[in-house]
Amino acid sequence: MPRTFFYLILFTLLYSYGISQSNENLTTVNETSNDAFAASGSLPEAEFMANVTIGCTPLTVQFTDLSTGEISARDWTFTGGNPAVSSEINPIVVYETAGTYDVALVVSNSSGMDEMVKFAYITVIDRPIANFTFLPDMLTVNFQNTSMDADSLSWNFGDGELSMETDPTHTYSNEGMYTVTLIAINGCASDTFTLDLNLQNSPTGGFGSDKQVGCSPLMIQFFDQSSGTVDTWEWAFEGGIPATSDIENPLVIFDIPGMYNVSLITTNSAGSDTTLLEDYITVLEDPIADFSFEVFLDSVSFTNTSQFADSYIWIFDDGDSSTLENPSHIFEEPGIYNVELIAINECGEVSQVFKIIPAIPPTAEFAIADGNGNGCTPFVVEFIDNSEGAISTWAWTFEGGDPMTSNSPNPTITYNDIGVFKVELIVTNQFGIDTMEMDSLIFVTNQPQADFTFIVESNTVTFQNTSSDGVVHFWDYGDGSQATEFESTHVYDTAGAYTIQLVAVNACGLDTTVQEVTIEAIINTSTNSLLPFDLLSIFPNPNNGQFQLQMEGLQTNVLEVVLLNVLGQTILERRIAVNNGLVNEQFNLNSKNAGMFLIRIGHGDNLISKRFLVY
Q1: What are 541-589's pLDDT values in tens digits?
Q2: Is this structure's pTM higher than 0.85?
Q3: Which one of 7, 160, 360, 499 has the lowest number of neighbouring Cβ atoms within 10 Å?
Q4: DSSP character for 5?
Q5: Integer CA distances (angstroms), 248 to 11, 226, 265, 272, 367, in order
């Protein structure tokens, strides 16, 4: 963005917060300037009015030219309007966005031109949008208003009770369905939002099952026996498949012998209840089939790792089988073989099947268990090996992790420091090796820390944001104004003490800091000064940093001149001698940045000010 355009935007914002000159004062300066040049011809005098200056979006305004004198051309400028400019006599403009806008009219003829600017002349207001959220606690509901652009609120809780509070809390007498209505109102219109609330008391949990003892795989049908209304069920089955369930009457399989706890949490909108039965399920020692293997070209050596089995049957998927505990087998043809081991005892038999791929190197592949590689310190990540092939070793490297290496197929790693980290997996078997590396897979950040410093220049305060780890920043300047820039400058209309709040936010949460700023004086930017003069001009304006200051009719011998930038910072001070009531002084700001500047002229408490643009 060009520097000149940036400062023009900033200058407009400063005017909208109350530093702008009044329309009456600007008209006085224009009239004074016009009088000085009246000898050269008859100048027009710009003036206009609007049929409406405040209203709701979209706001249609009819402007009427009230200018006097001979007029050959008109140039209207409508900040925020559509159209933004016009040369018509009495244009019609539509404002579709809420805000406060300036309007300017320049009229001209062969003798010259005149301009009328009315600052903050048009005010456009958004229509309200009603909305709310709620948090029930049995029959007591906390309502949170989330409406936008509302001046007042009207609540109807659906049980005959009403409220005009912003965030009311209401207790209902009975369970049931209630329709809650919120009406949001401002000077434009009103909007209505409704929600249906189903209010209940919390349930009393309980459950049973069709059996409690048996051989694995032990299949058990569980039954919810809770009393009261239940909206959700949260089952937890120690040693079960599935380990959790959210259905009312789940079917669960227990594969591993042992004694297991079962718990049920029943919940409705009013609350929840937990039932825990310890050692509720007893699984006898069913056989567990499992094995490992090593591939040597076409020969595979099998190691039986089954538990609780008395006998075994191996099926090699090529027409051969074996009843040995730890057999070896030669596969005559290359390919993929589904080798099955059947383990048998008095409870029954179970099998395990593995794919055997003789003489094929592995393919490395992995993923994060929950798919989320972003987190806050300490960030715990479970990695899942998805590699293909008969993997014999895993070599993980975790940049920034704890531990930084692992030989486990599915390691769990903790990241204690912030940063962006890569992960590498190397898998091997007797036939080869393969590597997978992912850069920037893990992103770890801290909780944000909000902090700032500030510099006060008269009524202008420059805030330096010294927060850490914040992604979004919210400023509250203590005078009803807010901003979301990282660093900002704010101008206060009135002297006094203001409490400044900065909130720093990221995915880990937010942090808030508060400081107090004291404004002891306000810069006088009004041209309605007691200093007597007949003419004040800066030309050219705009300029490239070189300009001439001229004044006539002064009744003092010395003037003090101060140049300020839009932040209120002093960039030049000069004392000027007045000769016979005249000043003709040359200035050169070539070393300064382009933008909008304020020249303040006076003697003692008598001050006048004028703005000019350097490009």
Answers
A1: 778 888 898 888 887 788 888 888 756 678 888 888 888 888 888 888 7
A2: no
A3: 160
A4: H
A5: 65, 10, 11, 15, 33
Cis link prior to 403 (omega < 30° from 0)? yes
Beta bridge partners of 252: 220
* Residue in the structure block whose two tokens are 């006076």: 602
pLDDT value at position 215?
A: 86
How far is 474 from 486, CA to CA, in rounded Å?
Answer: 8
Q: All domains of the chain, ordered by start, with CATH?
A: 37-125 (2.60.40.10), 132-199 (2.60.40.10), 207-284 (2.60.40.10), 291-356 (2.60.40.10), 366-445 (2.60.40.10), 452-519 (2.60.40.10), 535-614 (2.60.40.1930)
Q: What percentage of the chain exceeds 90 in pLDDT?
A: 52
Of the ranges 133-142, 398-407, 410-419, 589-598, which one carries the lowest mean pLDDT score?
589-598
Which H/E stretch holds residue 214?
strand 213-215
Map 557-598 to HEC letters. Answer: CEEEEEEEECCCCEEEEEEEECECCEEEEEEECCCCCCEEEE
**38-63 burial: b if 16+ Cβ within 10 Å, else e:** eeeeebbbbbbeeeebebbbebebeb
pLDDT above 50: residue 475: yes
CA–CA distance, 312 with 326 (Å, rounded to integer) = 10
Question: pLDDT at position 7, please?
Answer: 33
Closest CA to 544 of 441, 471, 613: 613
Beta bridge partners of 588: 546
Instruction: Classify the phi-psi angles of 120: left when phi > 0, otherwise alpha if psi is within -120 to 50, otherwise beta.
Output: left
**Which residues does 544 contact at the CB level (< 8 Å), separation at least 6?**
590, 614, 615
Would you state the structure tokens that stand for residue 87, as one six-digit string? Answer: 């040369």
Residue 574's CB is within 10 A of a number of other CB atoms, namely 12
Least confident of 454-458, 506-510, 546-550, 579-583: 506-510
Q: Which residues pair with 180 in a beta bridge?
A: 195
Position 520, amino acid: E
